[in-house]
Design goal:
about 30% strand; about 140 residues; Aminopeptidase; single chain; alpha+beta; Acyl_CoA_acyltransferase; 4 helices
């Protein structure tokens, strides 16, 4: 059974480990240099979102972070990708947190398709990410 726990700063090390594994498995379009850049940036954003850890029994599946109606981050341990956990987490967030907005890397086809299947539509596109790097971002709305 999927359960949610609000994360605290003592969970950050575990969150960053999942982030690193997930990005390595899903963000093949990132250069090694940029992967290191983002790894240094992520901790700065953890305090700015409502950060949740997601468990199945005692097993940590992944984490999410949102701010208001926007989902800023959803990362799963790669062992659990494609097993329905992402669907369950996103459904819970939509139903309980009224998540209506998500930004996704255009090159991350799997994530883009996942959100589109859950009723999100492309509202607009930016040619660079929030750091000015040449990774186009799709702005999705539900």
């Amino acid at each position: 059974m999927l359960t949610r726990k609000i994360a605290t700063p003592s969970d950050y090390e575990m969150i960053l480990k999942i982030w690193k594994l997930s990005v390595k498995a899903t963000h093949h379009f990132l250069s090694d240099e940029d992967r290191l850049f983002y790894k240094e940036q992520i901790p700065k954003f953890l305090d700015a979102v409502e950060l949740s850890l997601w468990f199945d029994e005692e097993q940590l599946i992944g984490f999410s972070g949102g701010n208001g109606y926007e989902l800023d981050m959803l990362f799963l341990d790669p062992k659990f990708i494609g097993k329905g956990y992402g669907h369950s987490i996103l459904t819970w967030l939509i139903e309980n947190k009224n998540i209506s907005f998500i930004d996704v890397n255009k090159q991350n086809e799997t994530a883009k398709d996942f959100y589109l299947k859950h009723g999100f539509k492309v509202e607009s596109e930016s040619q660079t990410d929030g750091f000015g790097k040449l990774y186009p971002i799709l702005h999705l709305k539900r």
